[in-house]
Design goal:
Blueprint: H1 3-7, E1 14-16, E2 26-27, E3 38-40, H2 53-58, E4 63-67, E5 79-83, H3 86-97, E6 106-111, H4 116-129, E7 134-137, E8 142-144, E9 147-149, H5 158-170, E10 175-179, H6 182-186, E11 197-200, H7 214-227, E12 231-235, H8 239-247, E13 254-258, E14 265-272, E15 277-283, E16 286-292, H9 297-312, H10 317-324, E17 335-337, E18 344-348, H11 353-365, E19 371-375, H12 385-396, E20 399-402, H13 412-420, E21 432-435, H14 439-449, E22 455-459, E23 466-469, E24 472-475, H15 478-487
Parallel strand pairs: 2-3, 3-4, 4-5, 6-10, 6-11, 7-10, 11-12, 12-13, 13-14, 18-22, 19-20, 19-22, 20-21
Antiparallel strand pairs: 1-5, 7-8, 8-9, 14-15, 15-16, 17-18, 23-24
Length: about 500
């Protein structure tokens, strides 16, 4: 694409160099510059891309975008584009360069505090069962058809996002399932993404280290529904879902889902087991008898979100019934780890108060013996939720093992002290508590004390394969630690 064509309708201060030069690639990582490509210098939280312009040019960059307020020395043969703010204008440039790729497929956005990953991956499985060509953008990994790509953020930056969508469109993907974080909405990373459908899961305590207050968190999440062009699906079991409905923050058809008959699509005759959940799903066009191969009402709600989406897209009930049979457990989400003992071990990503409470309530329904919960809280994140999670774990578990999650730059013992503020100094009769900073030892302790009929819940990290201590990522996988314990 010619630089002048790219910059048409995008404001800039001035261009030094050849406005008719061809840009064949674009990046904001100086290490990934292609010869003849463009480098966009972004001033981030910890790194300023303007410090790497020279490195980008040495790597072959033919065009450099930079902030006009920063003085940049000019190199002969390189074209420079001065912008007001490269970070804020990145979505405009990325979408234009990749020719608005979201318009070439059906975009389904999923937002909320919990459930985004599960719904996106469940819906992917269901659509694949219906022979659709799918892509997923999310927390665990990104998919284009059967190809898997690593992910860094729940929702990537605008340049990475548009490049991925362009690749998906070139692969003739028909539906793209996308987790949409509040960060992406607040920072405008998804400005030019054309969403056809939007799903709301729930809203609970999280990310208040980023949002000034909960109202801002809610208002930011609601932006997705104002952008949906064909339909919205909202969880009526959540008070903020009801608020979205009551305030009508959208202008397209609405489908509500829930566990009661005041929702448009709801479940009845629900029977839970450790194997999964059977229920009847009631829709405006009839009833679907279903078995969901993941236990708990959380996954009933997630399935209802998926069913509502397929229904909104015009799928017939027999097709939806077939699609439900394709749902498989999601890695790190109520994942049962096979162990050579007569107790159950479950790994889950629950790292917010609401998620932890939901998981423990689900597990309690099929636990005959005692429930042992291993958990911690992340460092450099919202501190207010720590004692809340301590209280929840204490109230719903028989034994709790308080440990480290990703302490980051905080002292692990200090994080545990914050959690302990929610736990009584004198434990109630029958309650047991262990405080073990080392997560590996904490998991081993929980497994060692588990008896037949007990369930061990290891919460907080789920699918993650690392632990961040200081600023360093160390390999650590909860499920792997469980398997190692029994192999020893």
């Amino acid at each position: 694409m010619k630089l002048n064509d790219l910059m048409s309708n995008i404001s800039y201060h001035h261009i030094d160099g050849d406005g008719d030069c061809i840009i064949n690639a674009m990046t904001h990582d100086s290490r990934k510059v292609e010869k003849g490509g463009a480098f966009i210098a972004i001033k981030g939280y910890t790194v300023d891309g303007h410090d790497y312009i020279e490195q980008a040019i040495e790597g072959g960059a033919g065009v450099v975008f930079y902030n006009a307020a920063i003085e940049v020395p000019l190199t002969s043969g390189v074209t420079y584009v001065a912008l007001e703010n490269t970070e804020q204008q990145l979505p405009d440039i990325a979408s234009k360069f990749y020719q608005n790729p979201s318009e070439r497929m059906t975009m389904i956005g999923v937002t909320g505090t919990n459930g985004k990953t599960s719904i996106a991956l469940m819906l992917e499985s269901m659509l694949k069962a219906l022979k659709e060509r799918t892509a997923v953008i999310g927390t665990i990994e990104n998919h284009i058809l059967d190809a898997v790509y690593p992910t860094q953020n729940t929702t990537p930056d605008a340049l990475t996002l548009n490049a991925f969508l362009a690749k998906a469109a070139d692969a003739e993907v028909s539906q793209c399932l996308m987790e949409v974080s509040s960060h992406a909405l607040k920072l405008d990373r998804v400005r030019h993404v054309q969403y056809d459908y939007a799903i709301f899961t729930n809203l609970t305590e999280d990310h208040l280290d980023f949002h000034p207050d909960f109202e801002d968190y809610f208002n930011t999440k609601s932006l997705l529904f104002q952008r949906a062009q064909k339909g919205v699906m909202i969880n009526l079991e959540d008070s903020y879902g009801r608020r979205l409905v009551d305030e009508g923050r959208f202008s397209v058809p609405l489908l509500t889902y829930g566990l009661h008959d005041d929702a448009d699509i709801y479940a009845e005759d629900v029977v839970y087991s450790a194997r999964g959940t059977s229920c009847r799903i009631v829709t405006p066009k009839g009833v679907i008898d279903s078995f969901i191969a993941i236990p708990g009402d959380i996954y009933v709600l997630n399935t209802l979100a998926c069913v509502s989406t397929l229904y909104a897209m015009g799928c017939e009930l027999d097709a939806i019934e077939l699609a439900i049979t394709a749902i498989k457990p999601v890695r790190g989400r109520l994942e049962t780890i096979e162990v050579p003992k007569e107790h159950t071990v479950i790994v889950d990503f629950a790292h917010t108060p609401d998620a932890l409470e939901n998981v423990l309530n689900v597990v309690r329904k099929f636990t005959d013996g005692k429930m042992i919960t291993v958990f911690g809280c992340g460092g450099d994140r919202d501190r207010k939720k720590r004692p809340i999670m301590g209280e929840i774990a204490y109230r719903l578990s028989d034994t709790i093992v308080v440990t480290s999650d990703n302490p980051r730059t905080e002292v692990p013992e200090a994080i545990i002290n914050d959690i302990m503020a929610g736990i009584p100094g004198t434990l109630a009769e029958g309650k047991i508590m262990h405080r073990i900073v080392d997560r590996r030892k904490a998991i081993a302790k929980a497994l060692a004390i588990a008896c037949p009929g007990d369930t061990v819940v290891i919460a907080g990290k789920g699918h993650e394969t690392y632990q961040i201590i200081g600023r360093v990522r160390h390999h650590f996988d909860d499920a792997e630690e469980v398997r190692k314990y029994y192999d020893a």
